[in-house]
Design goal:
Helix 3 (about 40-45) crosses helix 4 and helix 4 crosses helix 5 (about 95-110). The protein is built from six helices and no strands. It is elongated. By secondary structure, it is an all-alpha fold. Helices cover about 60% and strands about 0% of the residues. It has one domain (about 20-130).
């Protein structure tokens, strides 16, 4: 019995060591994740160039940002509500991971928006990527003939 617990304990120690060996975030990475302000900042955290735990934190921030903004937009523009939505996602909608990467790619392709607020850029991207169909207006009624 004792012989089988030694390899298991050794494997557990090695796995724990690998988890602790993840690179720590640099000060610059932490500052970026903690202070996303611009389109360029959000693009950097949505498709970070670094690895390890800092990469996971950045992606989680991106996905949380996009999810919250999307939910807020949905609350402001309910289906059939008085205000037309700014964007209309397809059904089925893309995954949040796909959206983060697509936003980041859009931001890099549109550097003229890099210094704008992150939310403004996210909305620009969503409007360009998921435009809403134009509303159909009922045909104008012909005027009634005078009697």
């Amino acid at each position: 019995m004792r012989q089988s617990t030694i390899p298991a304990a050794l494997a557990l120690c090695l796995a724990a060591g690998a988890a602790f060996a993840q690179p720590a975030a640099t000060r610059q990475q932490e500052d970026l994740i903690d202070n996303v302000q611009t389109v360029a900042d959000l693009a950097a955290v949505c498709q970070p160039s670094w690895g390890g735990v800092p990469r996971l934190e950045a992606i989680a921030y991106c996905q949380g940002f996009l999810t919250a903004a999307g939910q807020y937009h949905t609350l402001l523009h309910p289906s059939g509500g008085p205000m037309r939505p700014l964007f209309c996602t397809p059904n089925p909608a893309p995954s949040i991971a796909e959206s983060g990467i697509a936003f980041s790619n859009w931001a890099r392709a549109n550097p003229q928006y890099a210094r704008e607020p992150a939310l403004d850029g996210m909305l620009r991207w969503a409007q360009a990527t998921y435009p809403c169909p134009q509303p159909t207006t009922p045909p104008a009624r012909a005027p009634r003939a005078a009697r």
